[in-house]
Amino acid sequence: MPRTRPYRGAAAGRSLPDMDAIPDRRFDPLSSVRTQADGGFDLILAGTVFQDIIFTGLPHAPEPGTEIWSEGMGSCPGGVANQAIAAARLGLKTGLAAAFGDDGYGDYNWKILAGQEHVDLSLSRRVPGWHSPVTVSLSVQQDRSLVTHGHPAPVTASELIGPPPRALAGIAELGIEIEPWAKAAHQAGVKLFGDVGWDPSGEWAPVRLENLQYFHAFLPNQREAMAFTGKDNPWSALYALADRVPVAVVTLGVQGAMAVDSETGEEEWVPSLPVTAFDPTGAGDCFDAAFIVGSLAGWPLGNRLRFANLCASLAVQEVGGSLAAPGWGDIADWWKRANARPERQSSQWLRRFGFLADIVSDVPQAAQRRAGATIAHLSDA
Q1: Between helices 222-229 and 234-242, what is the axis angle to 10°?
Q2: How far is CA 256 from the centre of its chain?
Q3: Is 135 helix (H, G, I), strand (E, B) or coil?
Q4: Which of 143, 194, 261, 362 could form a disulfide linkage to 174, CB 3.0–4.6 angstroms apart?
Q5: What are the residues whose beta carbons fall under 8 Å from the beta carbon of 222, sequence distance 6 or more?
Q6: Side-chain-side CA neighbours of residue 136 (13 Å)
């Protein structure tokens, strides 16, 4: 069973604690800006929950007729669960609308999300006879390849959600058609943050750009941004997107991220932290969740990007997917380590993250940290 702290192994015969006994020790990053009238969720999102099986430390990609061994392995909820868990670990009251199979994977994913990660599943539903989608992620040379099996969910997100509940923000896919729940949420004043998957057809229908009218922010990677806009470089793509959406963000991988906030007039480029990436699975989801936290807290654009880069960099150093999403306890630990040596205190890197000093000082020692979830009773993740 999962733990709230990273878990690297267990002695023979030793069992792990009951997940249901793990208390909710979340730090609230929005406490200073909340009002009594807020209520509801901080964030709602919908999508498909996969059972992720992640192999890390592979020497190379598999070749036909051969077998290779990985250095690490983890099992955890994936797909939209990556974003939901990343947001919940950062203290957002998160509501997820998703279909769950009535198989063992569905049982496991539901229990992890609701019991361990404190994601509200009141908008979700168990579907008899529908088996859970499964994805195998192979991490090779700081990139990943995915193998997935599944069938379309028998119930849509809009059927699950109905009239959208009160929320500060939502994550929706920027597709050819915007789901009814997302349109209704937009009309109700929910700030929608746009997500997008890769288009294997290569068409990148222009109507998607027209649908940016429903969104507060759009956060593609550079490849997606250039494909959407038809531009040959990410900077031109960013400005083309900024003409259509209040907040445009383009992530640049190891080069960091850049953004334009047309509401405040801010433009920023923030480099990535210099870290050794172990597994990139789910790092983009951590980036998005952290950026939403900073946006709801009213931080300047540069600090939103720095915080998002930090959370993504903490994620890529661990087994990927929702396993790696940092909590405020991990962020506080990083801040203390970064300030541990006197020579580092004048570092330009630390000065850029100086805004965290007052925030981290309020983070309790028992604040939530990453989990080492695995489907085995004795973990070697």
Answers
A1: 60
A2: 16
A3: strand
A4: 194
A5: 234, 237, 250, 251, 252, 253
A6: 6
pLDDT in tens, 209-240: 899 999 999 999 999 999 889 999 999 999 99
Helices (H) and strands (E) in the chain, counts: 12, 14
Q: How many CB atoms lie within 10 A of CB 231?
A: 16
275, two tokens = 């870290």
Domains by residue range for the chain, with CATH: 19-360 (3.40.1190.20)
From CA 43, how far away is CA 377, in angstroms rounded?
32
**Cα–Cα distance between 366 and 23 in angstroms, integer?**
10
Other beta carbons within 10 angstroms of residue 290's beta carbon come to 28
Dist CA 182 CA 216 (whole Å): 12
Task: Report the alpha-carbon distance of residue 332 to residue 51 in Å, rounded.
Answer: 30
- Is residue 373 within 8 A of residue 76, CB to CB? The reply is yes
Q: How far is CA 111 from the centre of its chain?
A: 19
Mean pLDDT to the nearest integer, 29-55: 87
Sheet holding 134-140, edge to edge: 72-79, 49-56, 134-140, 143-149
**Residue 380 tokens, joined:** 């070697």
pLDDT tens track for 87-142:
999 999 999 999 999 999 999 999 999 999 999 999 999 999 999 999 998 888 76
